[in-house]
Prior knowledge:
heterodimer, A: 270 residues, Rossmann fold, B: 278 residues, alpha/beta, 7 strands
Amino acid sequence: MGRVEGKVAFITGAARGQGRSHAVRLAQEGADVIAIDLCGPVPGIGYPAATPEDLEQTVKDVEALDRRIVARQADVRDRDAVKAAIDEGVAELGRLDVVVANAGICILAPWDEVTPEVFRDTLDINLTGVWNTVQLAAPHLVAAGGGSIVLTSSAAGLKGLPFLTPYVAAKHGVVGLMRAFAHELAEHHIRVNSVHPTGVDTPMGAGDGMAQMGAWLEQHPRLAGMFTNSLPVEITQPVDISNAVLFLASDEARYITALTMTVDAGNTQY
Amino acid sequence: MAGRVEGKVAFITGAARGQGRSHAVRLAQEGADIIAVDICDEVPGLPYPAATEEDLAETVKEVEALDRRIVASKTDVRDLAALQAAVDDGVAQLGRLDIVSANAGIGTQPHPTHELTEELWRDMIDINLTGVWHTTKVAIPRLVEQGDGGSIVLTSSAAGLQAYQNIAHYVSAKHGVVGLMRTLALELAPHSIRVNSIHPTQVDTMMIQNEGTYRLFRPDLENPTRDDFVPASQAMNALPIPWVEPVDISNALLFLASDEARYITGVALPVDAGAVVK
Lengths: 270, 278
């Protein structure tokens, strides 16, 4: 019997990377999945955007595990689209137990090169998008009599990593959101926790944006140490985050709430 | 299907009953062999009966019923030489060491801080903090020598992250465990040894289900009972429950001990129904 057998999980940003990995890992342990992704570009991202084909691959991966999946192309900034995806998914799959607010963007720039557009888009997607996800999904958990919500923050949600001002602000905001929701939803046996990855081996962590990092760190060598993982590992894998999400989503963690769960190879302790 | 800690060996202190026994059984269910120690003896001033050698024998029986091996001994975590001998004997018999659960600890009668006796203070710090350091000290050389990492989990408490009145010795010891955890996480990271702590709220074991705890939580009543304790205990938690079960702590330990958590270190993991954020 799987560790989340019979549960239904709503996952944002599920076309690839960590989101796809979460869908697959939860499906391996018996969950059905409601998946959404923007499947399109956001101005300024220094890596290729996810595509409808990526989301289709997630569908295939989940179905290959004999689990059901309802996938929709939807932007977490678009409340109507998010609500429609959740409601359709719940209507088809019968319930909702787990919410994984994973969708996010990461645009690197030194503080004085961040544009208002980049700041706004990052906050809209990485923070307001998380709020949209939780607020629109939670009524189904209340109806079910309990559930588990996992918000994807970052090591940058606990410390001020350089060249990421909007990202750091949004990811810190996610912690506040997590703590506030944890209190208000506790009376419904709904748990709310955040996960805080260090660098993860996904398309977001590759591309031109990251390549610039080396040059900036050469100009600002005192900041370089902030990216150091204390464990001797340079990058983690999506499944490492998925395993933490799985634990928090499962009944094994039935009394764990309001936790900032680092999966960061010790980065925030260094 | 392989267990989640298949083939690993876990060293668990305070394993005669309660959370420690639950840890031994849960890890054994997922394929681990066990080195178990417990004092199996009185500590002065405890408001609940001491664990016994029969309790430890029951842990042995339950692990063996799962077809796992266990090496158990009556050992006090305050006795460094005895603890070293216990872990060395266990490793000699079971072949390796992968997981350390520093679980042994005592609760106590409540006293205003200035009324604590020297003996109560000393026993608490000796067992709940120095005993944890001893447990790591005797195990770390073997983990480093093996060269393939490991997972150390220290049992702290919600009282390791926030204060509770009238148990200053307990709060101080459990806070100290967090400092030890964080320091070890840094020192041992180059060896891929992870160090984390778990912070339970009230767990339904003898350590809380006793008259002393009932009095701590219900000073308003002359003879408080388990039923009287329920609302007071639940008031600590954000989730609408009075306490958690030993297996809830064991499940967190299992996750941290397993390779699923291979990049998780330095975490103070509350299993506290939201007590710390409340």
